[in-house]
Amino acid sequence: MSDDRVFDLFVIGGGINGCGIARDAAGRGYSVALAEMNDFASGTSSGATKLIHGGLRYLEHYEFRLVREALMEREVLWAMAPHVIWPLRFVLPFQKGGVRPAWLIRLGLFLYDHLGGRKLLPATKTLDLRSDPAGRPLKPVFGKAFEYSDGWVDDARMVVLNARDAANRGAKIMSRAKVVSARREAGLWQIAVRDEISGATTSHRARMLVNAGGPWVDQVLSGAMGRNNVHNVRLVQGSHIIVKKKFDDTRAYFFQNPDNRIFFAIPYETDFTLIGTTDRDYSADPKDVKISQEEIGYLCNAASEYFAEPVTPEDIVWTYSAVRPLYDDGASKAQEATRDYVLKVDADGAPLLNVFGGKLTTYRRLSEHALEKIGEAIGAKGTPWTAKSRLPGGDFAVTGAASEERKLLSAYPFLSKRHAARLVKCYGTDAKAILVDAKTIEGLGRHFGGTLHEAEVRFLIEKEWAVTAEDVLWRRTKQGLFLTAEEAAGLEEYMAGVRRAA
């Protein structure tokens, strides 16, 4: 079967970069199609440390352009999506004779405060950990700390919201759709796409192709396009552990390890603490990535150097790992490889744009830069527009999440405060599209566990391409942390029934 349209742009990859480019392009008037071989954000884009940050440690590697761009983007993205992005204060404990001298940290934080046009985020300050509550969970050897601002993001939700907005603007968005071949013919790209559920193959044509395959970007070039000896990215594994809550403070911690690596301990989903990340080279297939026992030991031991109460493997309730596709700049260590992005156009026939590297914080600017190259290749349409835009559900004041929760509780008094807060943080003003005219909790249909009900699952299937329980529990929501294995199996059975009935 073939689609008779000739798209201006065909995007391969449904991570943050692919969805961001598709959204920006659709908003400028390009005709766009996007194919993701799995679920949206099922690779790197849901495996991050979930920060909207400048990258304090990147200053050590003199990546001033990247840090400045990222710092400037923090408040832009927060305003775009105040439901899935919010400010977070970080506590950086300092120990005399530690990894980095105090003057170097102060200099880095001074640059951090002044490089990026900070307006709403509060400035850095010094803490006395002997009196500040942030010192309570830490070992008494840490008497002083620096506190600075960055942001938190629900990464997978940010990806799917970009996909939704692209679709709302006319893009053809396909999940579980693998590009099996792409070839140049008669000045166009001829693209074959296999539906990974039905097995059916469709053909599409486009004036330009965007390869935003993330860790699979080289595989796309060598597989679907038949290129040989392709090596553009350095794959680096980052793993995280989720443990039972280690502290009550709303602030996060930035810890330094004697090996010069850094890691974070971050409040997570109310009841937990997220600890990560690791950094090590990875050579296997990205789909097979999972945390190793060595990484578990590394994170537990590193955190235990700071927390008075040790972190042990028995504390772990969940782990996740992802592969970061860093542009291969020849750095000797994984943690030293550049986090900047590189965009390369191959104009030998119908143009191809390859996207290498990138990070959550700079995805919007990466998309704008990609559209500059797309305009040069096939003709410009529209002008940059995303800086003042809102993602679906984000049409409320940047500091208005608490107000939205109160409004939701007033309109739906049967919700618990916890349930209302989660719905606002997932869906913002779209929460009402889930609850509609329900008068009681029973009106939301079957209860699957946690605060997950049938009305929400239906919304995710119909509006956000959710197909499996994993899509719902670990990417669209984090309710997998609160459901038993039996409850999760019940959700899977329900969703399989919905698929059969469709």
SSE layout and pairing:
Layout: E1 2-12, H1 16-27, E2 32-35, E3 51-52, H2 64-80, E4 85-94, H3 102-114, E5 125-128, E6 144-153, H4 155-168, E7 172-174, E8 177-185, E9 188-195, E10 201-211, H5 217-222, E11 233-244, E12 252-256, E13 262-268, E14 272-276, E15 280-281, H6 293-304, E16 316-327, E17 341-346, E18 352-357, H7 363-378, H8 401-411, H9 417-427, H10 431-435, E19 447-449, E20 452-453, H11 454-463, H12 469-476, H13 485-501
Helix pairs in contact: 1-4, 1-7, 8-9
Helix percentage? 25-40%
* Largest sheet features: 10 strands, mixed
Low-confidence stretches: none
Based on secondary structure, the structural category is alpha+beta
Mean pLDDT, to the nearest integer, reads 93
| Number of contiguous helices | 13
Which term fits the overall shape?
globular
Q: Radius of gyration, Cα only, in angstroms?
A: 23 Å
Keywords: FAD, Flavoprotein, Oxidoreductase
Domain Alpha-glycerophosphate oxidase C-terminal: 386-485
Domain FAD dependent oxidoreductase: 8-364
InterPro entries: DAO_C, DAO_C_sf, FAD-dep_OxRdtase, FAD/NAD-bd_sf, G3P_DH_FAD-dep
Provide keyphrases for this structure:
502 residues; alpha+beta; 8-stranded mixed β-sheet
Q: What do you see in this structure?
A:
The structure is a single chain. By secondary structure, this protein is α+β, with helices and mostly antiparallel strands. It is 30% helix and 26% strand. The chain has 13 helices and 20 strands. Strands 3, 4, 5, 6, 11, 12, 13, 14, 15 and 16 form a 10-stranded mixed beta sheet that branches. The mean pLDDT is 93. GO terms for molecular function: glycerol-3-phosphate dehydrogenase (quinone) activity. InterPro entries: DAO_C, DAO_C_sf, FAD-dep_OxRdtase, FAD/NAD-bd_sf, G3P_DH_FAD-dep.
